[in-house]
Amino acid sequence: DIQMTQSPSFLSASLGNSITITCHASQNIKGWLAWYQQKSGNAPELLIYKASSLQSGVPSRFSGSGSGTDYILTISNLQPEDIATYYCQHYQSFPLTFGSGTKLEIK
Amino acid sequence: EVQLVESGGGLVQPGSSLKLSCVASGFTFSSYNMHWIRQAPKKGLEWIALIYYDSSNKYYADSVKGRFTISRDNSKNTLYLEMNSLRSEDTAMYYCAKWGLGAGYFDYWGQGVMVTVSS
């Protein structure tokens, strides 16, 4: 199974700043990576797929990059509505697995 | 508008069975693979099952293989998850999700249904 190591687990940042969340796969996942946002009490929502493709309707403040085993989610110009937990997920092979999540707090 | 609405959750005893349903609308259900994903209280996400659009292939996480069965009825736009031999560690919010275009990510999720396994 491919293990997804996500960091940090917790992140606190100020409004208007930028943050990055990293996700490391235990083997090459060839860009088959998605990022999700989960707000408290809600289902996750897709932000990014294929490592860097923005899902329709997602603000351009969100961007993804990476290749091979290492991937990054960047959120620019942090907004209050970005308070959430963020997860990465690979889809290179079965079983599909998620990172452990990054909880984002606004200072 | 894509909508996925789960139902069938509840409180059950260890060793019992439960069947979840997910009714889909707003897209051509019979053309898309569908997933079940779960999230234990205050924990992360765990993918548990996938069924192809025509039921030709099914995949399961090891944690549920042999106990859970995914199925679908395209005439009713409905996805199912039959859960047997339930354990306390199966306690979770269960989400159905639609397969993303051409790949194994999840582009739409239901609101989830809670399953609690406890004596």
Descriptive account of the structure:
The complex is a heterodimer of chains A (107) and B (119). Chain A is an all-beta fold and 107 residues long. In chain A, 0% of the residues lie in helices and 50% in strands. Chain A is built from no helices and eleven strands. Chain A has strands spanning 4-7, 10-13, 19-25, 33-38, 45-49, 53-54, 62-67, 70-75, 84-90, 97-98, 102-106. In chain A, the strands form two sheets. In chain A, strands 2, 4, 5, 6, 9, 10 and 11 form a seven-stranded mixed beta sheet that branches. In chain A, strand 9 (84-90) and strand 10 (97-98) form a beta hairpin. The radius of gyration of chain A is 13 Å and the shape is globular. Chain A starts with a strand and ends with a strand. Chain B has 119 residues and is mainly β. Helix content of chain B is 0%, strand content 51%. Chain B contains no helices and eleven strands. Chain B has strands at residues 3-7, 10-12, 18-25, 34-39, 45-51, 58-60, 68-73, 78-83, 92-99, 106-109, 113-117. In chain B, the strands form two sheets. In chain B, strands 2, 4, 5, 6, 9, 10 and 11 form a seven-stranded mixed beta sheet that branches. Chain B has a four-stranded antiparallel beta sheet with strand order 1-3-8-7, with no helix packed on it. The N and C termini of chain B lie far apart (40 Å). The A-B interface holds A 32, 34, 36, 38, 42-46, 49-50, 55, 87, 89, 91, 94-101 and B 35, 44-47, 50, 59, 61-62, 95, 100, 103-112.
Total E-strand runs of chain B? 11
Low-confidence blocks of residues of chain B: none
N-to-C series of helices and strands of chain A: EEEEEEEEEEE
Most extensive chain contact?
A-B, 23 and 21 residues
Series of secondary-structure elements of chain B, N-terminal to C-terminal: EEEEEEEEEEE
Oligomer: heterodimer
What percentage of the residues of chain A does DSSP assign to strands (E)? over 45%
Shape of chain A: globular
- Could you tell me the mean pLDDT of chain B? 96
Unreliable stretches covering 5 or more consecutive residues of chain A: none
| Distance between the ends of chain B | 40 Å
How would you characterize the largest beta sheet of chain A?
A: 7 strands, mixed
Round the mean pLDDT of chain A to the nearest integer and report it.
97
Rg value of chain B: 13 Å
Structure class of chain B: mainly beta
Strand content of chain B: over 45%
Distance between the termini of chain A: 37 Å
Overall number of strands of chain A: 11
- Measured as a percent range, the helix fraction of chain B is under 10%
Q: Largest sheet of chain B, described in full?
A: 7 strands, mixed
